[in-house]
Each structure stands twice: as structure tokens, then as C-alpha cells.
């Protein structure tokens, strides 16, 4: 599994301004990571896709990961899904 760092801007309704964001997403392909960003920001902040601008998608190594839950996922030997 690869980890992607996705940076961009999101427009918040209450403030009416664009804010920067950076997320680290584990995914198999960059397209999957971008789709997850749209899903997470849309559900967390009630944003439409048109209010989210992806500026940069980069693959990062395991040493560059800063989020604890992503580090924990990378340390697992296998994931069992029922």
C-alpha cells in the first residue's frame, strides 16, 4: 500500500474564504486517494466537490508519514476484511 500526500484548497461556507489543507491518505492509486479526499472533506465539512481544489498529489515514503493512524496501518502485516 502506498501513501499519498494531497494538498489543496477548500472553500468554507461560514467564512466564505478558501483555506489550505494537507492530508495523508493510504491508497493503491493516486485516483483512489483523491476520491477519498473528496469523500472525507465533503462529509466532515459538508462541502461539494466544486468547493475543493486539489493542487498537488505526491507519493511519500513511510519515513515521511506524520499521521499516527497511517503509520499504524503501514505496520500491519495483513488486513482481514469480512
What this model shows, in words?
Helices cover 29% and strands 38% of the residues. It has helices at 30-45, 68-75; strands at residues 2-12, 17-27, 52-60. Strands 2-1-3 form a three-stranded antiparallel β-sheet, with helices on one face. The longest helix has 16 residues, at 30-45. It is elongated, with a radius of gyration of 14 Å.
So, CATH architecture?
A: Roll
Shape: elongated
- Strand line-up in the sheet with most strands: 2-1-3
Please give the number of β-strands: 3
Could you estimate the helical fraction of the residues in percent?
25-40%
Number of helices: 2
How many domain modules?
A: 1
The CATH topology is Ubiquitin-like (UB roll)
> CA-to-CA gap between the ends?
19 Å
Radius of gyration: 14 Å
Amino acid at each position: 500500500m502506498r501513501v499519498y500526500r494531497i494538498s489543496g484548497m477548500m472553500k468554507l461556507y461560514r467564512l466564505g474564504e478558501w483555506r489550505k489543507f494537507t492530508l495523508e491518505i493510504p491508497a493503491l492509486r493516486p485516483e483512489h486517494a483523491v476520491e477519498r479526499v473528496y469523500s472525507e472533506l465533503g462529509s466532515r465539512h459538508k462541502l461539494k466537490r466544486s468547493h475543493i481544489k486539489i493542487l498537488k498529489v505526491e507519493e511519500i515514503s513511510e519515513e515521511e508519514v506524520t499521521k499516527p493512524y497511517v503509520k499504524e496501518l503501514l505496520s500491519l502485516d495483513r488486513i482481514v476484511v469480512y
